[in-house]
């Protein structure tokens, strides 16, 4: 689902949309998904400024990892990424 796309689905297509989003999420590096989930829960009990600072640090750390480099290289080479899965 891209930006600006409606979040509702036509009758009979909901499951297809759920499966597509699920498959897209599963194609991401497991470590990045775990980091994002952890960040989400850490931000619940802190104020907005602290949440932005924490998110900035976590995103920066994530972008310096091996999977970020692999994603960029795979994009340039027009191939599916081979995630480290750690």
Helix and strand topology:
Blueprint: H1 14-26, H2 30-43, H3 48-63, H4 66-76
Helix pairs in contact: 2-3
Overall description:
With 86 residues, the chain is an all-alpha fold. The chain has a domain at 29-86: Lyase 2-enoyl-coa Hydratase, Chain  A, domain 2 (Orthogonal Bundle). It has helices spanning 14-26, 30-43, 48-63, 66-76. Helix 2 (30-43) runs antiparallel to helix 3 (48-63). The longest helix has 16 residues, at 48-63. The two termini are 26 Å apart. The mean pLDDT is 81.
Entry keywords:
86 residues; Lyase 2-enoyl-coa Hydratase, Chain  A, domain 2; 4 helices
Shape, per Cα inertia axes: flat
Tell me what the CATH architecture of the domain at 29-86 is.
Orthogonal Bundle
Mean pLDDT: 81
What is the C-alpha radius of gyration, as a whole number of Å? 16 Å
Order of helices and strands: HHHH
- Bin the strand percentage: under 5%
Low-confidence stretches: none
The CATH topology of the domain at 29-86 turns out to be Lyase 2-enoyl-coa Hydratase, Chain  A, domain 2
Biggest sheet overview: none
Count of beta strands: 0
Number of helices: 4
